[in-house]
Amino acid sequence: xxxxxxxxxxxxxxxxxxxxxxxxxxxxxxxxxxxxxxxxxxxxxxxxxxxxxxxxxxxxxxxxxxxxxxxxxxxxxxxxxxxxxxxxxxxxxxxxxxxxxxxxxxxxxxxxxxxxxxxxxxxxxxxxxxxxxxxxxxxxxxxxxxx
Length: 147
What we know:
The protein is of the alpha+beta class. The chain has five helices and nine strands. It has helices at residues 65-75, 80-87, 91-99, 106-116, 140-143; strands spanning 2-3, 10-11, 14-18, 21-25, 34-37, 49-51, 55-61, 121-127, 132-134.
């Protein structure tokens, strides 16, 4: 449904000729000119419902990642600066990761896993309440884990 070009009312629109111009008008405003076409009523669309899965597998960084990285780097005899160069990262990032002040992204954690031959990423299963929502109107609130 659209708005009338004269009064702005929402509803089915008639195509009307007024002084040589074709306008889309509501039923009330269509009396000011000659009706060219009446509105076509469209059948309502069927809306599919989507059910959000009750469990979801999420990748997370292990909580003890600073110790694992520090021990393995020392075991390999690398300095923070050398490891940073091999990973193409800044030395300050490696320092912050090892001190626990910075949690690496999944992509950086994968680089560290590959270079140091350690396991930093875990897969965790998160359970959610079954939320059913209309496909066209899925909101952020539908995605929040309600406990």
